[in-house]
Write a structure and sequence with these properties.
By secondary structure, this protein is mainly α. Helix content is 74%, strand content 0%. The chain has seven helices and no strands. Helix 2 crosses helix 3. It is elongated and about 50 Å long. It comes from Desulfonema limicola. Keywords: DNA-binding. GO terms for molecular function: DNA binding. This is HTH domain-containing protein, Cro/C1-type.
């Protein structure tokens, strides 16, 4: 459960920063205090579906998108998953992945 709270908190913080709003901005547009939002983002508290829906509306995403935290995992877990996916990719897809990664990292 704790890992889920941490991942969801990272997801909310990431989406919030992506659109350039503060915790106070979310607080002003909802019935949620900025202190509570901070606790959510740090994974220190659970949040209800109602609160999650309010936050998702302010962030401009639907609830399933807000709850999609897979890519917020620790770098080492993501690296292992990516490595496994690349190793199992057919040759043609492997070459495409290689080109995309090289393009992004340049």
């Amino acid at each position: 459960m704790e890992e889920t709270r941490l991942l969801l908190g990272r997801r909310i913080k990431s989406l919030r920063k992506k659109i350039g709003i503060s915790q106070e901005d979310i607080a002003e547009k909802t019935a949620i205090s900025s202190k509570y939002i901070s606790e959510i983002e740090r994974g220190h508290t659970n949040l209800s579906i109602d609160i999650a829906e309010e936050i998702s509306e302010v962030l401009g995403v639907d609830l399933p998108a807000l709850l999609d935290c897979k890519h917020e995992q620790h770098r080492d877990i993501l690296t292992q998953q990516l490595y496994s996916s690349i190793l199992n990719a057919p040759d043609k897809e492997f070459q495409i992945i290689f080109k995309i990664v090289n393009y992004i990292l340049k």
